[in-house]
Amino acid sequence: MSIKSDKWIIDQxxxxxLISPFxxxxxxxxxxxxxxxxxxxxxxxxxxxxxxxxIFTNTHSAIVDPKEFDPNSFIDVTADECIxxxxxxxxxxxxxxxxxxxxxxxxxxxxxxYARCGIIVNVTPLExxxxxxxxxEFSNTTNLPAKIYANEGVAQMIFFESDQVCETSYKxxxxxxxxxxxxxxxxx
Length: 188
Prior knowledge:
The longest helix is centred in the N-terminal third of the chain and has 11 residues, at 6-16. A hairpin with a 2-residue loop joins strand 3 and strand 4. 8% of the residues lie in helices and 45% in strands. The mean pLDDT is 94. It has helices at residues 6-16, 112-115, and strands spanning 2-3, 19-20, 26-30, 33-41, 44-48, 52-56, 74-78, 81-84, 89-99, 104-110, 119-121, 124-126, 131-140, 146-149, 153-161. By secondary structure, the protein is mainly beta. The strands form three sheets. Strands 1, 3, 4, 5, 10, 12 and 15 form a seven-stranded antiparallel beta sheet that branches. Strands 2, 6, 7, 9, 11 and 13 form a six-stranded antiparallel beta sheet that branches. The chain has a two-stranded antiparallel sheet with strand order 8-14.
């Protein structure tokens, strides 16, 4: 198994729709303002967060249960910035849509810019032949409100290609998150 380079990421995105929309360079500035970077890096791709957020709230005193998740546990926010309450979390999705090849496993890792502020992005695998927008989970580990910026870099995707194609892919087994397009809550 080997990690894939910027050359592979560019080729797969431009010729096989691995990532869409796709930015073949590292963007660090927009309209003269510094931003948290996104786009291709040496051995990965920094994704952006869309402006759709689900912020955890305990207003309805719901129990957090992954088998019977209550959507009332979140409030929906559409904005250029998301404020996560202290010691809480929010869900968002990537701007980018992914189509993972059958021989590739992709890992989503948080960017250090956010981690250094106490904002942690959950490590998430994108399995072979999975496709969709990635739902991102942000945990605010601080006792202060924390800010996430839409349309700026929030996590990095790292691509690993196996020397052997898997027998059963995510698509083959009818994975429950296949083709997701919005911020997707837990499913059973």
